[in-house]
Design the sequence.
């Protein structure tokens, strides 16, 4: 069955970077684009960007341009999202999602806490 | 970007009552619309995809309808565990966008 398993919670200091992984199984990674979405405490859901694991093409939300990088390791069926220059407002749960599968699938979420 | 507008913002109902939640898109999303339920401290739970298909394990009191720009999530008889926040999400085009949510709380 399809699974998207994300890496564990992270605590980072302001200015640092965080790299969250999303390991896919149960389907062919390169057949579907993967999205990243985040949710800050008490807030709604916010799209960060999309990666095409076949070729690595990306598109990022303007808000995160210059700070986010999404990559793929097809040998391990893993997609990564790295966010740099972290600030307190980046404290959130980060999700990977494959929405063109039927049904859509989401990872379990990774809590990233940014605190000095 | 496609804007999703959910209404009402809050719905106060009693267990056993019917809940009707609305989601309107700023442009057509065909049937590429999903509904999620979220409880405090939990990840969003997929309820409905393709506008009207129930996800695995979702009780049949949840139903989705609509296509194009107007969508509805109906909970036929509210159970105590249904009091939560509900989001609609379109996946017709990038960026994915989400409605602002409807909170269903106990009257």
Sequence:
């Amino acid at each position: 069955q399809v699974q998207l398993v994300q890496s564990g919670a992270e605590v980072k200091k302001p200015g640092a970077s965080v790299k969250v992984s999303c390991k896919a199984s149960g389907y062919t990674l390169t057949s579907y684009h993967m999205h990243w979405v985040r949710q800050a405490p008490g807030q709604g859901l916010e799209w960060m960007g999309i990666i095409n694991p076949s070729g690595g093409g990306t598109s990022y939300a303007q808000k995160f341009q210059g700070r986010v990088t999404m990559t793929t390791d097809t040998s391990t069926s893993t997609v990564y999202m790295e966010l740099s220059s972290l600030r307190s407002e980046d404290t959130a749960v980060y999700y990977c999602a494959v929405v063109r599968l039927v049904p859509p699938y989401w990872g379990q979420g990774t809590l990233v806490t940014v605190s000095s | 970007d496609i804007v999703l507008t959910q209404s009402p913002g809050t719905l106060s109902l009693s267990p056993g009552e019917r809940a009707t939640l609305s989601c309107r898109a700023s442009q057509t999303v065909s049937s590429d619309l999903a509904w999620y339920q979220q409880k405090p401290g939990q990840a969003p739970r997929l309820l409905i995809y393709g506008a009207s298909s129930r996800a695995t394990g979702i009780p049949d009191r949840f139903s989705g309808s609509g296509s194009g720009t107007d969508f509805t999530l109906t909970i036929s008889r509210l159970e105590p565990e249904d009091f939560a926040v509900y989001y609609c999400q379109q996946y017709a085009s990038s960026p994915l966008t989400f409605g602002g949510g409807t909170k269903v709380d106990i009257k």
Summary: Residues 15 and 85 of chain A are 4 Å apart (CA to CA). DSSP finds no helices and eleven strands in chain A. The first strand of chain A starts at residue 3 and ends at 6. Chain A has a mean pLDDT of 96.
